[in-house]
Fold these 2 entries.
Entry 1:
Amino acid sequence: MTPSYFLGVDGGQSSTTALIGDDQGRVIGMGRGGPCNHVGAAEGRAKFVGAVQGCVHAACVQAHLDAAALRFHSACLGFSGGPADKESILREILPAEQMFVTHDALIALSGATAGGPGIIVIAGTGSIAFGRNAEGKTARAGGWGYIFGDEGGGFDLTRQAVRAALRAEEGWGSPTILSEMLLGETGARDVNDLLHRFYTTEFPRPRIAALSRLVDDADGKGDAVARELLDAAATDLMRLAMAVRQRLFRADAPVNIAYVGGVFRSELLLGRFGEMVEKSNATYVRRPAYGPAAGALIEAYRSAGLGHTLADVPDEK
């Protein structure tokens, strides 16, 4: 009998990861590629195709499979920004009997819960909470972008830090060391110069979001304003999670809530998030079981009607 192979791909703003599994649920190959979140222009499409094909080819090499001759039984690919502008391209470049193209929150959830019901809170550059119950019903809260949403995400946390620095400089806000830390990190002359730099292409959103770690650093030095900002971000993320819980699960039903994203590297923020979430009856904060590429592979098996438990899953970090 000819063996069947399954593919899971996590396509993000910084990298693309592919996992290949056999027909028993064992991961046999992993590959990485570049970012693949934009496909609008010709250059973006070329980068997208190169990233997907590159990581799948690398996974085939590790699995000792001939990429040119391989046709997957089932493939699931999840992307930041959703599937709308990518699915037709993928069907041209990836041979698969079944293909499921979805958004990154679903595969992150599936990986975090090993395919089970629950909720994932993602707080990287932006933020979103996404959940699925045992009946397969899904719900989301947040994820509406840096202008109208993304509360508690890295960009929003940096924005709040800059606002606090501006208030302190103008004399109507509490003193904070965030001003000098932001200036030192960026090389700006003053807060006014910093603000103008943030409006240029020199500082794309991910770079601004990465500066959110300074808020945690400032809290470690005893800065009261930084502590307030971290507490507020934790509160926002908790509210997103509980909004999804309310829509999908009974009040007394046990629910696991997983977390992922750079913002949760803050021990204070993660601790406060956990404290507030677990005040709700039968609600528990858990580390993710697997990464999003493993979640995509789980969804590939699910699409084929298989409920395999994954084995030999590599670390996606």
Entry 2:
Amino acid sequence: MRGSHYGHRVAYASAPDLLVLHALRITGMADCGSVARRFSLDTSVVEEQLLDDESRGWVQRVRFADLRAWSLTSAGRIEGERLLAEELDHSRAREVVSDAHAHFAPLNTRFLRAVTDWQLRTEPLDRLVTNDHTDPRWNDRVLATVRSVGRSLESIDDRLSATLDRFTGYSARFAAALAQVERGRLTWLDEPAIASCHTVWFQLHEDLLATLGIERGCEQ
């Protein structure tokens, strides 16, 4: 099985059956190739696993516009949560993931506020308007927050990926999206249809919630 090294410790490598279900959990829906790429799995292994999971009623084929993809069923979501809880016990990673989530929560508040400010800005008399990105000072202030949050994300990612290998890469993907924004491709901050900063952030949040068995919106 896969594993990454952090110092003298080898991170716990998740089983392919868990990774296939989990990829659909954190992305919402994906085609076979996207599932395989998410965790560097062999496409033929993923395809076979998806067909097995379909026969068990855990995944279903969906069509959205021109996209043909797979998504979890309610039963698949439950099975995925069962596998995640089992893995958390076997890997002895609960304390690390819980601590990461505790550090992520205040960053989440800052980042979501930054995304709102990227989309809307205030004019005189505190009137909110769509941000047309013609005010460089406003954009620079927002990006300063996003950069700061990204730096904090690196330490969270380091601790998580040193324990559970499947967490590897979130901070790198976030940094790659932010680099696109810095080059002037502004949609890479908040566009949901691409691997934007917001997409990566949302997926990490879902990953933490799913791993800990917390429903979105029920955090304390």
